[in-house]
Amino acid sequence: MKANVLIVGAGPTGLAMALTLTKLGVPFRIIEKNKGPGETSRALVTQARILEHYQQLGVSDKFVKEGIPLTAVHIRNGGEDKAELRLKDIGGALSPFPYVLSLPQDVYERLLVKELENAGVEIEWNTELVSFTNQEDGVKVILKQDGHEECQFDYICGCDGAHSTVRHGMETDFPGGTYDQQFFVADVEAESDSLVLGDMYMNMEANGFFVFMPVRKKGIIRLIGIVPEDVRAIDFWEIYPTVQKKLDLTVSQVNWFSTYKVHHRVSEKFREGRVFLAGDAAHIHSPAGGQGMNTGIGDAVNLAWKLASVVKGKASRDLLETYEQERRAFANSLVSTTDRAFTNIIGQHRRGKVLRTVFFPYVLPFLLRFPSTRKGVFKTISQTRIHYHESMLSVGTAGKRRGGDRLPWVQNHNNYEALQSFDWQIHVYGTVKQQVRDELSSVSIPVHAYEWDSSVEAAGLQESALYLVRPDGYIGFVGEDVEDMKRYLNKFQIETFF
Ligand SMILES: Cc1cc2nc3c(=O)[nH]c(=O)nc-3n(C[C@H](O)[C@H](O)[C@H](O)COP(=O)(O)OP(=O)(O)OC[C@H]3O[C@@H](n4cnc5c(N)ncnc54)[C@H](O)[C@@H]3O)c2cc1C
Question: Is the pTM for the entire model greater than 0.90?
Fold first, then answer.
């Protein structure tokens, strides 16, 4: 069978795109220049919004089983615990996954590779994209394996990381900057008489910070921080005395150590004709808040269902324009907020010092006692706050929800079960009037009706309104008139997949 789509890169973004296209029945190839999946932990956190997407794809249980929900963050200063932020169930009833899940990227990638293998997908390792030509009727590519292969695809997705060949081929700018400081990361085996090794610790000092958090169930922890100015940091043992002074930690083995510079950049374009960028190929940013990998996976899900719709003739090509509109807008706002936060956290100016020695140890723990602050923090970090209000796919308002909002989870009715079809659907909360029922019979989109109660009202939904939900769980259209909804569907020639 001819593959319509080429996925370049089998990191978390490419693998998530492959899994979504598999679910939607789109023929594709996925190539990776390395000989197998990554072996270092790198990203450590999987956010709730990504687990929600994985629930749609039927794999979330496997990820949750392998990870550790973070229960507490200890804020330290001067080598002492100053405050403890309780994270357990911080998301309350906002998501079926109301926590921050620690799950190392290598485990994560291996899980996805296994899922793909089980689905009969062959990842083409040791295969590199050399170049491509973007044409009106397809994209011609040259691949390098043992020899060279020339072939053509309808679309290619550059999920090929920060040094993306695809982005270079698009000749688009990648503006942004690089932080001055040198950072280190180490996965170590350690023991401690006083620290809880399953919790996260943030050691905030006037002149720097270290963070450590659990990586795996076997007692391996991740240490990150700024390399002290008087240290050359060729290996971990040069930094160890500085760390040990601040944290009661005896390290017995170092499994991975690296120093790196942190960049913040967003590509000028996420799309050129039939060629798309996703993940680190499109945006890179500071590790503040553990958003990088998660944002790439969000890109992959957003792009995959739109490509699948067009390839399968279930929507017009205009739908593809909304990928850049939605995801570049989010990447820009994410990069500017993480950049601001990170600059302040690492800065040697007065504001940075006050943040580390006053805000984190004293003010933040006080604020987090309030349920509204806990909710706000969770929504931002978990990526459940992401919306696409400015997208041309987002139409209407009812109750507190607008087109472009994530469909809120209503725990009492488990309304996310329906999202597992990964297809367009209509949700109505409350009575569906007979006239509306009659009109809806001519729309070949499944209708899910739920009882109206206080939990639905609390989720900001409006009684008896029509919520047309996209395959990725965002509200596309919302209103009360079936004719308006039909006009919306006609505009993009939208049909269901299955
Ligand atoms: C030390 C460290 C800590 C991090 N911590 C976090 C964190 O806590 N939370 C978080 O969310 N993120 C974190 N990140 C960022 C996270 O690792 C990246 O955002 C994530 O790996 C991006 O995934 P990706 O699939 O877009 O790109 P990558 O993981 O870079 O994958 C791209 C793949 O494409 C392949 N490739 C490249 N060019 C070609 C080609 N021409 N042909 C074929 N294949 C090609 C590469 O070999 C690679 O496997 C961290 C990163 C680092 C380095």
Answer: yes
Superfamily name with CATH number, domain 68-102+177-263: D-Amino Acid Oxidase, subunit A, domain 2 (3.30.9.10)
| Amino acid code (one letter) for 95 | S
The residue among 21, 47, 49 whose CA lies nearest residue 407 is: 49
Pocket of ligand 1 (CB under 6 A): 8-14, 31-34, 42-45, 105, 128-129, 159-161, 165, 185, 279-280, 287, 290-294, 296
Domain 5-66+103-174+267-342 class, CATH top level: alpha beta
Residue type, 65: K
Q: Summarize pLDDT for 233-284 with one digit per residue, the tens.
A: 688 999 998 888 888 889 999 999 999 888 999 999 999 999 999 999 999 9
Give domain limits for the chain.
Answer: 5-66+103-174+267-342, 68-102+177-263, 397-491
Q: Give, in words, the CATH class of 397-491.
A: alpha beta
| Atom of ligand 1 lying closest to residue 143 CA | 42
Please tell me the distance between residue 31's alpha carbon and the centre of ligand 1 in angstroms. Answer: 15
Q: Which residues share a beta bridge with 450?
A: 429
- HEC secondary structure over 139-153: EEEEEECCCEEEEEE
